[in-house]
Amino acid sequence: MEKKVYERHIKNQKTHWWFSVRRDLIFKFIKKFSKKKRIKILDYGCGSGTNINALTKLGQVHCYEKDYKTSRYLSLKYKKNRKVVVIKKIKKTLKYDCIVLADVLEHIKNDNQALNNLKKNLKPKGLILLTIPAYNYLFSKKDVVLKHYRRYGFNQIKNLVSKNFKVLRITFFNTFLFVPIALITLVLKFLKVDYIEKVENTPNKFINNLLMNIFKAELFFLKYIDFPFGVSIIIIGEKKNF
User: Fold this and answer.
1) 99 backbone φψ class: left, alpha, beta (φ>0; ψ -120 to 50)
2) Domains of the chain
3) How many angstroms from the chain centroid is the CA of residue 104?
4) How far apart are CA 42 and CA 60, in angstroms?
5) Tens digit of pLDDT for each residue in 93-117?
């Protein structure tokens, strides 16, 4: 991602409705499917550290971010936190109970190879959790700025993950806001408008709370059902031991 994108995420990650609810969703999925109370987690492509504090509630967190300045920022921020280790390289000897890729896979050109490699860093029956943007027809200038190679179809990501992992659950999310987000995206895509800065900055308090409460309502329903469509997809799998 571009430097200003990292800076914008650092500034907005605590309060922005999207980051806040996605963080809760990731936490709840891992907690539900983990067989241990305390686990070792790799936050792969952790960016500005959006999910780190939430993940530390589950155990120790190793954070990997290839952008040097962002990685250094995280090292300084968490230098006194024993639950957080910022790593510069993922060694083959490191083994994790869970690996998280929160909106990361779409940034990787060879996504299949990346998952193959990360599987080697999982303990037997270790978990992998991914969130990814859905529907390639929604690919817009925002995706270009974020340096996305693609957005994913439901079966596309399910089949990709299934090669090395037993899929425990997969569902769309950000469903309640799908229609307005999709319509706005398609219109702005047609008009070739650059809108990323506006949507990634935290809106005024009223709008932010409104969007957060609508998005957060999904967490209740996701306890019982899978959504048939949405702006994003979340998938969690267990390492296959061949």
Assistant:
1) beta
2) 3-239 (3.40.50.150)
3) 6
4) 9
5) 999 999 999 999 999 999 999 999 9
